[in-house]
Amino acid sequence: MSSVETKEATDSQWWKEAVVYQIYPKSFNDADGDGVGDLRGIERRVDYLDELGVDAVWLCPVYESPQADNGYDISDYRSIHPAYGDMDDWRRLLDALHERDIRLVMDLVVNHTSKEHEWFQRSRRRDGEYEDYYIWRDGSPDEPPNNWESCFGGPAWTYDDEREQWYLHLFDENQPDLNWRNPAVRDSVYEMMEWWLSQGIDGFRMDVINLISKAEDLPDGEPGAGQTGTEHFFNGPNIHEYLREMRDRVLSDDSLLTIGETPGVGVDDAKEYVGSDGSGLSMVFQFEHVTFDHDGHKWNAGNWSLAEFKEVLSKWQTGLEDDGWNSVYLNNHDQPRMVSRFGDDGDYRRESAKLLGTLTHTLQGTPFIYQGEEIGMTNASFASPDDLRDVESLNFIEESLERSDVQSYEDVRDAIEYVGRDNARTPMQWSDDPNAGFTEGEPWIQCNSNYETVNVERARADEDSVLHYYRDLIELRDERDVLVYGEFELLLPDHPAVFAYTRTLGDERGLVVLNFESEPVEFVVPADVALDGLELAIANADAPTVPSDSFELGPYEARVYLTPTQHT
């Protein structure tokens, strides 16, 4: 298929050629000085997004919420949380984005609501049709109905004194799970989705969507490593029935981008969501490549090898190549900063940030940029639990202190600072002004102390910055179909330092070579890789215009060689 034919065949699937930018509104930009990011603050930075070259924005929840989980506990799906603004502010943001040909994808959180949602308040009172909107079970106040555990730690059940029953919450106790077996619940969700689509949005990112279906009898889970009970609610028995119904009722327009966050899925599972015979989602967020180093649970992360990393990413590249589509990300609001996780946030912060960006923009799939990634933001330091805001981290600390081997916060601090979610939620670093130019007030969470040197203002002024490199990456991917649709082939899978692969689309070819080490390494091109016609397209260091049979890569050096053919 020629490049022109490829583009014509996917006109309704613009998202395959798009780059998506994720905004965590609470931490992006504060316009009113109250220390909390808001919609007007985002609107003021729309030109920045346009200059970067992104095609769509995924906006994390801005709905009304008591903020028990920073907005993922929604009390009113059709109202904006006052700290973020109001619907007029939201509409101005939508218009500003659309005027610049940037699409807007809203976060859809329908596995659970807030306890303060009217549905739950009426359900706990057994109020008519709302009585079975949530998952309630009888039982002694001292004994949960089963042994399922919350994703945030502790039991997945809380006893409600008003209703005198237990309710299920796979996350925080302030986030009761909706009962998707009830058709009235599904009708209410679909009606809400249709309302947002009528406002002009371009799709949904669906929070933990593969958890909405639970095993009918809620049986005990098998205790062991990891969260107990997942076999009964990850990819539950009716999940595809519900998603097909959602597609038929609400999402039949193929131009809508639908991203399913699906913890626990493998490649074969993913095909049931995104394949030609699947449930109709555009793509899924899978977690295998950001959890492969978790030894039992996320707080034991960190022991990994490049060979393992390559194996996981390559499995997804080839597994969905012929039937489905990948999302490509290395960090987001729930993951630590990628340069601290997979690169070097010290001496080689700039080089490794560019290398990781090269990886995400040259793999097959839609790249997702998390705010601040494009300037190389890093994990932060949290000297005290008082500096933390994330309920998951705080729960982990509390549970850890109950163990005999943990005496103080210092005993778990390394884990918090390595994989804790607050790493991703420190304010966006706009300048070296107080509070990183994020707010004129007291920020809701502390700024990373390195904002005086790592910030947008400084990056804009430096032609060799991570920011300018990201602009070049986005432009390159936009120009070269081989980086979007090309076949992926991994080279040297066991090499301990080099991640190398080819991309092939008809006569167009590409070679990507990445050194994941802080020491120079010699790369020998495999004999079956044709180098003729390849020219340097982008690199994060000085490199020859054409590749040789072998060459030395510097610390965290990245090179992309492509045939010069471009689509018209």
TrEMBL record:
GO MF annotation list: alpha-amylase activity
Report the Gene3D superfamilies cross-referenced here: Glycosidases, Golgi alpha-mannosidase II, Oligo-1,6-glucosidase, Domain 2
Q: Which parts of the sequence belong to the Glycosyl hydrolase family 13 catalytic domain?
A: 22-425
The residues forming a coiled coil are none
Which keywords accompany this UniProt record? Glycosidase, Hydrolase
Q: What is this protein called?
A: Oligo-1,6-glucosidase
Classification via Pfam families: Alpha-amylase, Malt_amylase_C
**Record InterPro entries:** GH, GH13_cat_dom, Glyco_hydro_b, Malt_amylase-like_C, O16G_dom_2
List the GO biological process terms. Answer: oligosaccharide catabolic process
Name the family the entry cites. Answer: Belongs to the glycosyl hydrolase 13 family.
